[in-house]
Amino acid sequence: MDTAPSPLPRKTLTAILLAVCLASFATPFISSGVQIALPLIASSFGVTATLLGWVPTAFLLPYAVFLLPFGKTADTLGRRRYFLIGIIVMGAGLICAGLAPSFGLLMAGMAIAGTGSAMTFATALPLLTTNYPLRERGKIIGINTAVVYVSLAAGPFLGGIITGYLGWRALFLVTAPAILAALAVGYRVIPEDRNTSPKRRFDYPGTIIYGISLVLLIGGASRLPALWAVAIAGIGAFGLLGFFLWESRTTEPIFPVRLLRGNRLFTCSNIAALINYSSTYAITFLLSLYLQYIRALTPQAAGTILLAQPVIMALSAPLAGRLSDRVEPRFLATTGMLIVTVCLFLLSFVREDTPISFIAGILMVLGLGYGIFSPPNMNSIMSSVGNKQAGLASATAATMRVLGQNLSMAVAMITFSVVIGTVVITPDVTGELLTATQYAFIAFAVLCAAGVWFSAVRGTIRTRSAPKRP
Questions:
Q1: Predicted local distance difference test score (pLDDT) of residue 113
Q2: Taken in order 408, 412, 417, 422, is the CA torsion positive or negative?
Q3: In the predicted model, what is the mean pLDDT of residues 265-288?
């Protein structure tokens, strides 16, 4: 049973919030900002178009693999310990990536940083909710969420400026001090855990099946249509099916499959979230390459254009969240996803001479659609379960997000592998790059259209909360 935290001095609470927000800023900043630096990274190491997609994926994949296990074990072994160790690991990974003399070590640094990020993200919100008084939790969660949105908006813009003036290595090295500052503050002010959960049997089989299957699926998909890649991706897909079967039967699952059974609102809302992230995350990756390779823009200019989407998203999301308390979230979320679908379809028509203002305008509307979709959809997820299941529901939503991000990059890498092949992007292959980009946006538009259906048929939270008639 949760108990109210003992009162802490206001300065201590503020310092805890500062440490958590610094750590929360780093993950979306790196994952979005690094995509602006990809052309320069490709030039430094001479990597192929398909391998280039593995730079952000190397960060996201361990993040996806370890998020659930770390969230599960941190409740037992101590959230403070996990948070601080995660910061150290993330900082070490960023420094390794920034100083990497080879592409392989860059990938290793990104993977290390992603692992550390999973540790900090799994414990960030619990640290806030267990130390702040109940009456302030909503406000504090809102502040931390706003930091994440600001980070997403700042990633392409600041990433473009840093990369353009200081080089791509500076993007990682400039972020590391903020991470280490979070470590210094957190170590001094975050109190030891008082209410850790009793030790329970950990789901090692499920964790291993999940991790290996996800790596095989993403790794195989990135090298399609080769037959060996089809086989590897197929094994990964069947492995994930086996994982869900295992989780539905084991007594201590790391993924709450049982919440998906008999709760259409919860299930469809999570599927809609998965599809939405699968359709939208790689937009920055694709347009960053398009703007810099095909339109010959500088990283600063490309980052400024890509800023349009997250800024509108950050402005519209709070309003949509408030409106979802008055209007059925299903209607808002479905409308937002429909807007995103139309924008993805329009982006599939980009050409070498498409006006930049047209692209920026689509990104603004797309940001509006995403802002209208995300908070109401999360409202549906959290409103579809009881208070005792809120933690599991939140963990499930986080898993859908990071899985969707990985799948989005996989779709982009599939189109690159099929159209461009294993060649370095040069002026001679910009035509193939444009074709691959168009195909990817068509795939995303079709996928997002399916998400509109799942969003529309989810059911309503008003009906669930209404008293049953005799």
A1: 92
A2: negative
A3: 90
> What is the pLDDT, as a whole number, of residue 389?
61
End-to-end alpha-carbon separation of the chain, Å? 34
Looking up tokens 């959809």 gives 377
Residue-level pLDDT at 3: 46
Tokens of 22: 């610094």
| Cα–Cα distance measured from residue 34 to residue 180, given in angstroms and rounded to the nearest whole number | 19
Whole-number pLDDT of residue 73: 79
At 261, the amino acid letter reads R
What are the structure tokens assigned to 200, written together? 């329970």
In the chain, % of residues over pLDDT 90: 22
For the full predicted model, state whether its pTM sits above 0.85. Answer: no
Q: Which of 246-255, 308-317, 459-468 has the lowest mean pLDDT?
A: 459-468
Measured distance CA(299)–CA(158) in Å, rounded: 10
Pair 144, 128: CB distance under 8 Å: yes
Q: Is residue 5 over pLDDT 60?
A: no
Q: Among 1.20.1250.20, 1.10.238.10, 3.30.420.10, 3.40.50.970, name the CATH number for the domain at 262-464.
A: 1.20.1250.20
Residue closest to 283 by CA, chosen among 155, 146, 399: 155
Q: How many helices (H) and strands (E) does the chain have?
A: 19, 0
C-alpha of 149 from chain center? 11
CB 131 within 8 A of CB 3: no
The pLDDT assigned to 1 comes to 40
What pLDDT digit, counting tens, does each position of 429-443 carry? Answer: 888 889 999 999 999
Q: Find out whether 156 and 35 touch, Cβ atoms under 8 Å.
A: yes
From CA 93, how far away is CA 66, in angstroms rounded? 15
448 exposed, middle or buried (CB, 10 Å; 0-12, 13-18, 19+)?
buried
Fold of 9-190: Growth Hormone; Chain: A; (1.20.1250)
Return d(Cα 277, Cα 271) in angstroms, integer.
10
User: SS3 for 424?
Assistant: strand
Which tokens is 119 given? 């540790």
3-class SS of residue 369: helix
b/e sequence 421-445, b meaning 16+ C-beta within 10 Å:
eeebbeeebbebbbebbbbbbbbbb
Q: What is the pLDDT of residue 360?
A: 94
**C-beta of residue 35 within 8 angstroms of C-beta of residue 285:** yes
Best CA proximity match to 41, nearest among 115, 105, 90: 105
Mean pLDDT of the chain: 83
> Torsions phi, psi of 196, nearest 5?
-70, 150
In order, the DSSP letters of 92-113 are HHHHHHHH-SSHHHHHHHHHHH
- Reported residue count of the chain is 470
Give the whole-angstrom CA distance, residue 427 versus residue 292: 11
